[in-house]
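anyone seen this seq b4? input:
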Amino acid sequence: MVPNPGDHGIPLMRLIPRTTNDQIGSGDVMIQRVSTDGVETEFVSTLQYVFATSPALVSYDDGQGNSATISYPFPGEIDGLRNDLPVEAGPDGDVVLDLTFWRPQRRPIPPETGDWIDMGELRYYAGLGSMDPQNYTCEQGAYSSSDPNLTPVAPEDNVEFATGGGFTDLSADRPASPDNTLSYRLNLTECLESKGMSFDEGEARQFGFSAFGEPHPGGADQAVTGVYFKRQAP
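predicted toks r here
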């Protein structure tokens, strides 16, 4: 257990097992041993799942001629060098993206088969990682989707690290497939302006695309992918 000042200023305790995905995974039993006055007590808990991958951006399209299908491994930010994805504003001045993602994955739990499981029933949010928890995620008005598996997240389902808008995935866990994608539209300009931030030509902004598990006391398990977008001149 390692103390941590916490994301967005919220104090946390982190469990850091210092293992690889081959050494810890879904279904493992964790044992906490506590000694009090020389008497040791064991607390046993089953690890329901481990995010083995993050939400992965498959493609984006700004409707203005900038689009890409992402190849992996995607460099993102390495040694200070960023791979900024170019975007342009539409006629109304807003940068609006159609985004497609692969779901996070976990290892199978018997009797499941295969090497990987695409995780369903997660909550998906887009936000600004530098913001405090009450302003972290984009407001619901910045999102839209025609994906039949996505429904707007209910306010009571929000967790402390994601209090804005987003989607709940209605699909169940299933064997991994490149065809298992989810898609939504996000107005980057509207999201930034709601936080008092600009998105002028030449500016680059980072967005975090998060998947959250079922809320529990203290928050929820989370996997996030950060992507930089840079606004271009028309």
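The chain has two domains: 2-46, 56-231. The longest strand covers residues 222-231. kinda curious what u guys think
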